[in-house]
Specification:
Elements: H1 15-20, H2 30-33, E1 44-48, E2 51-55, E3 62-65, E4 76-77, H3 80-89, H4 109-120, E5 124-128, H5 135-145, E6 154-158, H6 164-175, E7 176-177, E8 181-182, H7 185-192, E9 198-202, H8 209-217, E10 222-227, E11 240-244, H9 250-261, H10 267-280, H11 284-301, H12 304-310, H13 324-328, H14 338-342, H15 345-350, H16 354-365, H17 376-381, H18 388-395, E12 398-401, E13 404-407, H19 411-417, H20 424-439, H21 446-451, H22 453-465, H23 467-474, H24 483-497, H25 501-518, H26 521-538, H27 541-558, H28 561-578, H29 584-587, H30 644-674, H31 834-839
Parallel strand pairs: 1-8, 5-10, 5-11, 6-9, 9-10
Antiparallel strand pairs: 1-2, 2-3, 4-7, 12-13
Helix pairs in contact: 4-5, 6-7, 6-8, 9-10, 9-11, 16-18, 16-20, 20-22, 20-24, 22-24, 22-25, 24-25, 25-26, 26-27, 26-28, 27-28
């Protein structure tokens, strides 16, 4: 059966059965070659104190108060197995390929025992020695001796470019199991206070008060600190003892050199090593490098059989100062000069493989940082370039520092003098492009990016310092993104998610500077936003406010709504933390905009007071008179009392006006309904263009005439009220023979008050024509209308005799007084027209007095 073209037997079916059924069509291959969906942005949520931080590499990180349900509990310490794994991770990686045995510790036994003894007592000690004196090797041996001294074991930290706060967080993560959790300062101090471990801290860069703060925060820890003589010493109050570490003596130097070379030294080589010991002051690093020079000399002198035996240096180029023909003639290769032995980097590098020399160029361009061995094949372009790290460590050109490697002491200057720094910008640009792709790849964890932080930041620093050469060598157009900005955008979110916040801040500041130099406002706004979020997490509220306001202003100019919203939320959180929370108006305002002052608008009270929404309900049996007006009381000021109360008062007044209007309309409708059967209804007498006018004292609009001072009608021969005016046959008023009074309360048929042609009235009774002349007297009436509320009937009233005197014992006031109604003071105009009708006690259609 063909393995490439499988038949039906390969699928468990017989050929006959398969031939009877049609084969399903193959799926088209177009989707495989189509455009794939873009990779989703990698967002990480972590807890920083009481804040929930969402690292968003697209629009900027979002920060908010952490809900109580999502806050992590107090972190627990690692188990013994987890501590052993963490200790292995804290060591530098082993170089690939065959490894040489580590050189023995010579002439260091006294210092070793002294350090162990002090640590066993719980004392902290500093091991002070120059670079290349073997501090790291001695610290590793002492750490192995103290593995069982403390309950939390041994914790290895590096102080290279680390602050005291960074070291506290590193110590917390090395002992506690707290993924994606960065505790606040109080919680951090409470956790590290309970740690009891031997902390091996190498390459520390601070001392004095900062070191005292670190020691005071960890009272249960014993520190073994490695420092150089130029690092400040601890304060006099600190209980830290210094142990000096010097060079080796002559005999120890010779022994170390023989161990590195792997054979006994000749007399010439011993004399040469003696001069080297005097010049180097016995530093072990110089003897390791000198042994590498002697090994290279031996390989150059060896025959082809020796080269095949070692099988390593077949591609090694000859030394610059060695004649190839003399080597072939088996002539003696001279020993390196004393100057070459004192600065052996150039000579050692010239005899290494091309991959090792290319790796050295990257290390020089990155400020001494050696890229991880996993990156060397991609950077160098050789699949076996990872073996170059083994060559460099054997020669003593690189030395371990923390979890990585750096160029050894003095190697950077020597290689720069040898021409390895001629193409620093191009080499750094190549490294930056590689790290940009690698840091943004979804398969790379934030922890791996954080472990390579120093190399990434070194490449970023070179690009920021020299943007012009990097842009010219890129070969891209002017619209392309700056390589430094791209690297900072890719690495900064990974540093934040990996809890390496010192590297996060350095990447953000370098990216902001690069974006400002490139004129990229969008990226500049992103970096300022991230700096504000970082400052907020650290509790630097003033710095956070400045950075966030800058980012909001830039994003507002770009109309970036999503970024602006994220910035405003973070800024509101800053205001809440600082105790200067703005109002609702300023929360919605963009930074830089003026917030107008709040205005309180309300209606102003009328001069006479606020009218009542409804007329007062009065007893219909009570006489209503007008009283003299009194001075209006001052209206209380309503300033500052607007809002809902003023709005409700306006609604109440409007409702009252509506109620009055409804009452008037109801009266009109009632009049119309009751007058439908009356042929003399006023509605049937209205002309096409009616006109009505009324002068002072004119009663021609259908109202009753005003009575004079004597109680009689002024200037009118007809009756003005509903009382009987004819005594009848017997000559006595109030008897049964009196005629029925006319209904003068009804409105006149004609607007002008005149009778129709024919002289008859509308009710069939003969009535003298009314006159339109003005009344003879304009004085107000002195008689009171009757208090009876009964409707007029055809029967005359018998219980009351009309008289000109008022029925009450209290005389009426001679002048009008102020009214009790809410409509303000009453007018003092003469009682004429409709006003006289209301004062004379006319009854409406319902039989009650209408009080206006």
């Amino acid at each position: 059966m063909d393995p490439n073209t499988r038949g039906p037997e390969g699928y468990g079916h017989d050929a006959d059965d398969e031939s009877s059924r049609p084969r399903p069509p193959r799926d088209p291959l177009t989707p495989d070659f189509g455009q794939h969906a873009p990779t989703l942005a990698r967002t990480v949520q972590l807890v920083s104190g009481d804040l929930l931080l969402t690292v968003n590499p697209v629009d900027g990180s979002e920060i908010e108060p952490c809900p109580p349900a999502e806050r992590p509990s107090r972190p627990e310490k690692l188990s013994a197995a987890d501590r052993a794994e963490a200790d292995r991770a804290a060591r530098p990686p082993v170089p690939p390929g065959p490894t040489r045995p580590a050189p023995p510790l010579l002439a260091r036994q006294d210092e070793r025992e002294q350090l162990v003894r002090l640590l066993a007592r719980g004392r902290s000690v500093r091991l002070v020695g120059p670079r290349g004196a073997g501090r790291t090797s001695l610290l590793d041996l002492v750490a192995d001796d103290c593995a069982d001294l403390a309950p939390d074991g041994v914790v290895r930290l590096t102080g290279f470019r680390r602050t005291p706060d960074d070291l506290l967080h590193d110590l917390f993560r090395a002992v506690h199991d707290a993924p994606l959790h960065r505790p606040e300062q109080d919680e951090l101090l409470a956790c590290v206070r309970d740690i009891g471990a031997v902390v091996v801290l190498d390459d520390i860069e601070f001392g004095g008060t900062a070191l005292d703060q670190l020691l005071d925060a960890t009272p249960e820890c014993a520190f073994l600190i490695g420092a150089t003589p130029d690092v400040p010493a601890p304060s006099a109050e600190s209980d830290v003892e210094d142990v000096a570490l010097g060079g080796l003596d002559r005999a120890a130097g010779m022994e170390l050199l023989e161990h590195v070379v792997g054979r006994d030294l000749t007399e010439d080589e011993r004399n040469w090593a003696g001069d080297l010991w005097f010049e180097s002051e016995g530093l072990p690093l110089r003897f390791v490098q000198a042994g590498a020079l002697l090994r290279q000399r031996d390989r150059l002198r060896a025959e082809a059989e020796a080269v095949d035996e070692y099988g390593v240096f077949e591609d090694a180029p000859p030394a610059d100062a060695v004649d190839t023909e003399s080597v072939r003639d088996r002539e003696e290769v001279p020993l390196p000069s004393l100057g070459e032995a004192a600065a052996p980097a150039r000579l050692l590098a010239s005899r290494l493989s091309p991959s090792a020399r290319a790796a050295l160029r990257f290390a020089v361009a990155l400020g001494g940082e050696m890229p991880h061995q996993a990156h060397l094949p991609a950077l160098v372009g050789d699949t076996h370039a990872d073996a170059a790290l083994g060559e460099l460590t054997d020669c003593g050109l690189v030395s371990p520092i923390g979890t990585r490697y750096r160029l050894a002491a003095g190697v950077q200057i020597q290689l720069e003098a040898a021409g390895y720094a001629d193409d620093v910008e191009e080499t750094a640009l190549s490294a930056a492009r590689h790290y940009t792709w690698w840091a943004g790849h979804p398969s790379v964890t934030p922890e791996r990016v954080s472990a390579e932080a120093d190399a990434v930041l070194a490449a970023l620093g070179v690009l920021v310092a020299s943007p012009a050469p990097a842009a010219d060598s890129s070969g891209t157009d002017e619209d392309a993104t700056d390589p430094a900005v791209e690297l900072a955008r890719a690495a900064a979110p990974a540093f934040a998610a990996g809890l390496h916040w010192s590297a996060w801040e350095r990447a953000l500041r370098a990216g902001a500077e690069a974006a400002r130099a490139a004129g990229d406002v969008t990226e500049q706004a992103y970096f300022h936003h991230e700096l504000g979020v970082l400052a907020l997490c650290d509790g630097r509220l003033d710095r956070a406010r400045t950075e966030l306001e800058t980012a909001i202003g830039l994003r507002g100019a770009l109309a970036d709504k999503r970024g602006t919203v994220a910035g405003r939320r973070a800024l509101a959180l800053v205001a809440d933390r600082s105790g200067t929370a703005p109002g609702l108006a300023s929360l919605t305002a963009t930074a830089g905009e003026e917030v107008p002052d709040a205005r309180y608008e309300e209606s102003q009270s009328p001069p006479g007071g606020v009218p009542a929404p409804f007329p007062p309900v009065l007893d219909t049996s009570t006489l209503v008179t007008h009283q003299a007006s009194a001075p209006a009381s001052p209206v209380p000021s309503h300033k500052g009392r607007g809002g809902v109360r003023g709005f409700a008062r306006r609604n109440l007044v409007a409702a009252g006006a509506g109620a009055v209007l409804v009452a008037v309309l109801g009266t009109v409708v009632t009049l119309g309904a009751t007058s439908d059967g009356d042929p003399a209804s006023p509605s049937t007498r209205v002309g096409v263009n009616p006109s009505a006018s009324q002068g002072a004292g004119d009663d021609s609009l259908g109202a009753d005439e005003a009575a004079g001072a004597d109680g009689k009608d002024s200037g009118d021969t007809g009756p003005a009220t509903s009382r009987p005016t004819d005594p009848g046959p017997d000559g006595t008023l109030g008897t049964s023979d009196d005629p029925t009074p006319t209904t003068s309360a009804k409105p006149s048929d004609d607007p002008s008050g005149t009778h129709k042609p024919g002289g008859g009235s509308s009710d069939g009774t003969t009535k003298p024509p009314s006159t339109t002349r003005p009344p003879s007297s304009t004085k107000p009436p002195t008689t009171k209308p009757p208090t009876s509320t009964r409707p007029p009937t055809s029967e005359p009233p018998t219980s009351e005799t009309p008289t000109s005197e008022p029925p009450t014992s209290e005389p009426p006031p001679s002048q009008p007084q102020s009214s009790d109604s809410a409509s303000g003071p009453a007018s003092s105009a003469p009682a004429s027209g409709p006003a006289s009708a209301s004062q004379s006690g006319d009854t409406g259609p319902t039989g009650t007095e209408t009080v206006i």
